[in-house]
């Protein structure tokens, strides 16, 4: 999901695209980049919440979201002018459809930016537990200091108007995932941690959280229409989706199993927080985790800032644009300081936003555009079942994640 904003940033800054389109291999890489995000850090935690049998649910989630990706592809076949996900919403339900999908997409981006700050704070505190900051005679320490310092570092990157070159930095997301996976395996195999935890077979209580986190890992649907449009041969996009979901599924599944075997029920919301800091492999994993958010934060925030600037016609006013972007950074800092709970926030994103964007809206738009509701066949029944199951999981998962957040923010 982290890279779903690349194509939007490039289009908003009017970066010219190759006339011939992207190849099958390049599109596969871009799709993997869209599915390779910070979700890999929490996938072992998700498995610990649901138990070993929840790996079956991880597989089912991947299959369902692969199918909804195909539904978006079929919606695009109706009109060759469709290029983005909001275009599909407008084709189905007019301007209200475009507004609804855009709202969910931007809110998802905003909360991912918040997650970046929380991630940086947690992992930097893991590396430097005794660091503190003196301001006005008061001593500040812990994760919150690092959240503030990270925000100060990334703030200038959000002032850039043209992020075309910076956008290509995030192509390292796929490589970073493999480096992280390799580092975690090295810790377990060669750094005296081992793979001895048995874990639980099934945990009903943690299942909604596990499903929410699993869904978050596969929420790349916002970029799928753009990737399809950019291809030389759009008929191959279904194969691209299959390759991306299979490879990302192997990566996520491997990380989940490794982490659960290593730490069992003691897993934290980020696998890097369980790693012993004294080992070189652990430091490689943590530093790899730290670099990506710093380079990608501006890419996440820019589409939101651009949408605000366009809505109020401030696009050509540099001072106002700077104020808007600075305000967005400040607001994400405030949210991150208020709810610095990586796992709970990710579960909320997965339950409320990812399920809606990646599961419910593709089905609803497909039914409306293709008028599939007029035929009570196997396809219609399958889509209705997905909508019912997705709605139930979304409601329950959102309730549980909000409840957990409020219990920590308002403990009394």
UniProtKB/TrEMBL annotation:
One of its GO terms (biological process) is amino acid transport. Its main location: membrane. Keywords: Amino-acid transport, Membrane, Transmembrane, Transmembrane helix, Transport. It is found in: Membrane. Residues 21-401 form the Amino acid transporter transmembrane domain. GO terms for cellular component: organelle membrane. The chain crosses the membrane at residues 24-46, 52-72, 99-119, 144-160, 165-187, 207-228, 240-264, 284-307, 319-339, 345-367, 379-402. It is a multi-pass membrane protein. It comes from the Eukaryota. This is Amino acid transporter transmembrane domain-containing protein.
């Amino acid at each position: 999901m982290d890279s779903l904003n690349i194509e939007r940033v490039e289009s908003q800054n009017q970066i010219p695209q190759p006339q011939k389109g992207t190849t099958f291999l390049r599109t596969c890489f871009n799709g993997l980049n869209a599915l390779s995000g910070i979700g890999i850090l929490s996938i072992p935690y998700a498995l610990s919440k649901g138990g070993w049998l929840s790996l079956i649910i991880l597989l089912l989630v991947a299959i369902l979201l692969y199918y909804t990706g195909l539904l978006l592809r079929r919606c695009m076949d109706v009109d060759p002018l469709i290029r983005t996900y909001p275009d599909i919403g407008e084709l189905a339900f007019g301007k209200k459809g475009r507004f609804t999908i855009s709202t969910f997409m931007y809110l998802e981006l905003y909360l991912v930016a918040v997650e970046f700050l929380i991630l940086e704070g947690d992992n930097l505190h893991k590396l430097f537990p005794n660091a503190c900051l003196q301001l006005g005679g008061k001593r500040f320490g812990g994760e919150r200091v690092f959240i503030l310092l990270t925000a100060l570092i990334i703030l200038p990157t959000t002032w850039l108007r043209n992020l075309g070159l910076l956008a290509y930095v995030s192509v390292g997301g796929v490589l970073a995932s493999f480096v992280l996976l390799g580092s975690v395996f090295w810790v377990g195999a060669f750094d005296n941690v081992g793979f001895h935890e048995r874990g639980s077979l099934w945990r009903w209580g943690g299942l909604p959280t596990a499903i929410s986190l699993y869904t978050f890992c596969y929420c790349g649907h916002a970029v799928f229409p753009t990737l399809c449009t950019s291809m030389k041969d759009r008929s191959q996009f279904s194969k691209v989706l299959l390759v991306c979901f299979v490879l990302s599924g192997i990566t996520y599944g491997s990380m989940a199993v490794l982490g659960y075997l290593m730490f069992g029920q003691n897993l934290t919301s980020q696998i890097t927080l369980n790693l012993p800091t004294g080992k070189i492999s652990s430091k490689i994993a943590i530093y790899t985790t730290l670099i990506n958010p710093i380079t990608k934060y501006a890419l996440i925030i820019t589409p939101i800032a651009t949408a605000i600037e366009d809505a109020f016609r401030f696009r050509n006013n540099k001072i106002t644009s700077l104020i808007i972007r600075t305000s967005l950074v400040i607001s994400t800092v405030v949210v991150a300081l208020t709810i610095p709970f990586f796992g709970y926030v990710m579960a909320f994103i997965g339950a409320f936003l990812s399920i809606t964007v990646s599961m419910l809206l593709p089905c609803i738009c497909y039914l409306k555009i293709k008028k599939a509701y007029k035929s009570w066949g196997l396809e219609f029944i399958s889509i209705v079942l997905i909508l019912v199951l997705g709605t139930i999981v979304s409601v329950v998962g959102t309730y549980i994640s909000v409840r957990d957040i409020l219990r920590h923010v308002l403990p009394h």
